[in-house]
Amino acid sequence: MFFIFSKVLSFLMNLLLWVFAFLLVALFSKNVKRKRKFLLIGIIVLYIFSNSLLLNIVSWGWDIRETKVPVGKKYTCAIVLGGFSSDDGNGGGFFNTAADRFIQGVRLQKTGQVSHLLISGGNGLLMPSGFKEADWAREQFREMQVPDSCILTEAKSRNTIENAAFSKVLLQQRKIKGPYLLVTSAFHMRRSMMIFKKQGVDVIAYPCNFFSRRFSVSADDLLPNAGALAGWASYIKEAIGYVTTRYFK
Predict the structure, then answer these.
(1) Residue range 88-96: average pLDDT?
(2) Which of 108, 115, 161, 219 minimizes the number of CB atoms within 10 Å of its CB?
(3) Taking the model in full, what pTM does it have?
(4) Crossing angle of helices 52-62/226-248, nearest 10°?
């Protein structure tokens, strides 16, 4: 039920959906005052959420950018959260904009900082296909010459809460003790750390896939930017998920 609720809520938080709704009300309203009001609201909402400067401020305050991993220290396992690949519609997958999660997993294993990689991710679609991200990722790790003995996969989870729950069970079954490195996008790390710690999994943040590593301002940031809309969608989802999980789950 929580999974379905989160998907419905994500749909309702679609910013373009709201902008179109305001503009449609303005278009079909026969009341001149209401028409102007909703037209203005639609324009203001569209500008605010296509504004890179405001998004940069939110990103700077929310993202976890730094890791507390000491140089030279080795860990038993890095838990790499799914979301870095998508279903290609033909039974396979492809890397998406979060591919840095996968890259950092390979890097950690190849440099000897971790002995195992746990890939946690099934299919998070409301109407799932047969694609299982962790199973697909295992094949990609093999191509990168990561030994099978180093790879653990959990292909049942549909969201971060299930990532934590199923990963915990798998690690206990394999008797692999923490602390573990948690590898996920910087914007997703704050919520992920809370969820894993809430479920008793001893994790250390290893953020990647950064929206930005420094705060900067330019005149271009004040201009509408289509990319900012996608960024806002991610942060709104994270904020809602954080509050919901912390206080109601």
Answers:
(1) 89
(2) 219
(3) 0.87
(4) 30
Query: What is the dihedral angle through the alpha carbons of 200, 206, 209, 210, rounded to the nearest 10 degrees?
Result: 110
More confident residue, 248 or 86: 86
Q: Which two tokens stand for residue 17?
A: 């959906």
Q: List C-alpha distances in Å: 89 to 66, 131, 188.
A: 36, 8, 26
Q: Please check whether residue 225 is in contact with residue 51, taking contact to mean a CB–CB distance below 8 angstroms.
A: yes
Burial of 73 from C-beta contacts in 10 A (0-12 / 13-18 / 19+): exposed
**Cα-based distances in Å from 129 to 72, 132, 138:** 41, 8, 18
**What is the rounded distance in angstroms from the CA atom of residue 111 to the CA atom of residue 124?**
31
Structure tokens at 168: 């915990």
**CATH numbers and ranges of domains, the chain:** 2-63+223-248 (no CATH), 75-208 (3.40.50.620)
**What is the three-class DSSP state of 138?**
helix
Q: What distance in Å separates the CA atoms of residue 154 and residue 176, rounded to the nearest whole number?
A: 15
**Inter-residue contact 118 to 153 (CB < 8 Å):** yes
